[in-house]
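note to self — DONT lose this again. spent like an hour looking for the file last time. sequence + predicted structure for the chain T wanted, 319 res
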Amino acid sequence: MVELEVDNLKVHFFTSTGTVRAVDGVSFSLKGKSLGIAGESGSGKTTLGLALMNLIPSPGRIVSGSISLDGNNILQFNEEKYRTEVRWRQISMIFQGAMNALNPVYTIGHQLMEPLKFHSELVGEKARKKAEDALREVGLDASMMQRYPHELSGGMKQRVVIAMALILRPKIVIADEPTTALDVIVQAQVINLLKRLERELGISIIMITHDLSVISELVDIVGIMYAGELVEIGPAEQIYNNPKHPYTQKLLNAVPRLHGKRTKLESIPGIPPDLKSPPPGCRFHPRCPYVMGICKVSTPPYFTFTDQKATCWLYKEKA
């Protein structure tokens, strides 16, 4: 059972107009469970996933914090050790947008065998057989090896990207918006596929999404990101049934419900802050319906509710 511990992780992008604090002090732990990271576009979700893979693009870099995998701080590894021992072997990623993740000039087989070439010693016929087995595992025929990305539907391409992420049997798979640009039927097929693979292979999935309804039945733990910070985290059932942070409440009220009492869908007024100069205090306070004076000047700590915790001054009496 893999144990992942992220402590006070900060990822900043150093631009000519200022420093963008894309991930600013995120901490969480994961042991044998699956995690969903949700929030609006620009909240730092994808950057967090790329940090776990140590693939932050320039001009960004991890400026502080640690990522421990089974007790080892993997951020202390050099690039060669990270590539050969961590990336794709222990942590892999289903990158956002399968249409962009696949190279249009190479066959599916060529691209499926790339992780084997760079992260293992399998070559030739053994690598080909491994790639064919990976395709069958996600419900595709081995004949797909000879095809090019433009010959596949959106759902097929998404399955290929999933097969690529699983080909070396990693312990953790980061799925970055795996259902984006897919119709609802194919979305359901992809989610069911991930659920089946999670169960059969015993992997932990970190699902990154802006849609809380997508992860409702897939993950054990839900984390809510806003403006580079993890503002609430806890067991999925508690987050959905009793959200504590006003931002989480607003996100859930924007999701249509099939069952229960009909309620009017809500929107969140305003826009997320500029991460080059985030507001003082709670970063959500300019958009929060419960804002108080302390929210504008002091950053709230985590307040704990059994297994659930949230950063909000509404619960300052628990301090």
